[in-house]
Write a structure and sequence with these properties.
With 277 residues, the protein is α/β, with parallel strands linked by helices. Helix content is 43%, strand content 17%.
Length: 277
C-alpha cells in the first residue's frame, strides 16, 4: 500500500538539476527487487548440473504434446525434434493429444504419422468421440471408448489421439488420466515447441536425483526473436522470466510456475491432485 501511495504521489528520492530525470521510491523498490533476484539467480546458475547423465537405469517418461489447429510447419518441427531426443527409446512414450476430433484437425494426425514413420517408429491413431468430462451417461467404459483408449496407450509408444474439444487442460487431463502411474514422469510441451535433444534427459535427471521435487522446468526461448521488434521484446521477457525470476526461485527449491512448453512432473504427485485440478 505504501509503495502504491508513493507511486501515485510521485515521491522522488533523487532528481537531476533540470528536473528531467528522477529516481522515485517505486523505482528504488523495483531496483532492489531485481537486484535480489539477480543475485540468487547467479548463485543458482553458478552450480550447473554435470554435463553427463547416466542412462544405465533411466526412468519411464511419457511426453504429452497439446495441439489445437497448429501451423503444419511448426508441428512438423516439433515432432522432428522429438524423434531426435537423446533418451533411451525403450523408456519413452509419446502422446500427441489433439483438441478437437473434426475433419479439420485430421491434418495434424497425418503429420504425426508421417514424421514418426520417417524416423522408423510405429505410430498409432485413435479418434475419440468424447473426452473424460463429456462421457455419455449410463454407458460403460467398454462402449464409450475409455477402455480402448487406455489399452492403446498402455500397449503402444507413439500415439496420436483426437478427442472432443475441451481446451488445453482437457487434453492434458486425458493424457494424465489414461497414463496413470504406468510411467514415473510425464513431460509436457506445446505443438510449436522445438525441444533440445538433451531436454528430457536433463529434466529426468533432476527428478531422479531430487526425490522431494514434484516437478521441474527448463529454459524456454523464442524461436523467431528476430522477426519483429515485438518478438524481440518477447524474447527479452522470456529470458528474464526463466534466467532471473525462476532461476532465483529454483535456488530455494520452489518454483511458482512450471512452463507449459517445457516441464516435467512426477506422475505419482500428479495422480494425487489430478481430479482436484
Amino acid at each position: 500500500v505504501g509503495m502504491v501511495f508513493c507511486y501515485c504521489l510521485n515521491v522522488e528520492l533523487m532528481k537531476s538539476g533540470n528536473g528531467r530525470f528522477a529516481f522515485g521510491f517505486y523505482g528504488a523498490v523495483i531496483f532492489v527487487h531485481l537486484s535480489v533476484q539477480s543475485f540468487f539467480a547467479l548463485l543458482e546458475q553458478s552450480n550447473p548440473p554435470p554435463p553427463n547423465y547416466s542412462t544405465d537405469a533411466p526412468s519411464k517418461v511419457a511426453l504429452q504434446i497439446s495441439a489445437y489447429q497448429e501451423d503444419p510447419d511448426y508441428l512438423r518441427e516439433c515432432l522432428a525434434a522429438i524423434t531426435k531426443l537423446e533418451y533411451p527409446r525403450s523408456k519413452l512414450k509419446v502422446l500427441l493429444c489433439i483438441d478437437g476430433n473434426g475433419d479439420d484437425s485430421l491434418y495434424m494426425a497425418e503429420i504425426f504419422e508421417t514424421v514418426m514413420a520417417e524416423a522408423g517408429l510405429r505410430p498409432v491413431f485413435f479418434r475419440w468421440d468424447y473426452n473424460y468430462h463429456e462421457l455419455p451417461e449410463d454407458v460403460g467404459d467398454d462402449e464409450n471408448g475409455v477402455r480402448l483408449l487406455e489399452q492403446m496407450i498402455a500397449d503402444n509408444q507413439f500415439i496420436c489421439l483426437m478427442q472432443a474439444w475441451g481446451g488445453k487442460r482437457e487434453v492434458m487431463y486425458t493424457a494424465f488420466k489414461a497414463l496413470g502411474e504406468s510411467v514415473e514422469y510425464v513431460q509436457v510441451c506445446d505443438s510449436d515447441t522445438v525441444l533440445d535433444p538433451c531436454a528430457m534427459l536433463e529434466l529426468a535427471w533432476v527428478l531422479d536425483t531430487q526425490p522431494n521435487s514434484g516437478a521441474v522446468g527448463g529454459d524456454v526461448q523464442i524461436l523467431n526473436d528476430g522477426d519483429s521488434f515485438i518478438s524481440f521484446l518477447s524474447s527479452l521477457r522470456y529470458w528474464t522470466a526463466f534466467n532471473v525470476e525462476r532461476a532465483c526461485q529454483s535456488y530455494f527449491g520452489v518454483v511458482s510456475c512450471i512452463s507449459g512448453p517445457l516441464g516435467m512432473y512426477r506422475m505419482k504427485v500428479v495422480q494425487e491432485f489430478l481430479d482436484l485440478w
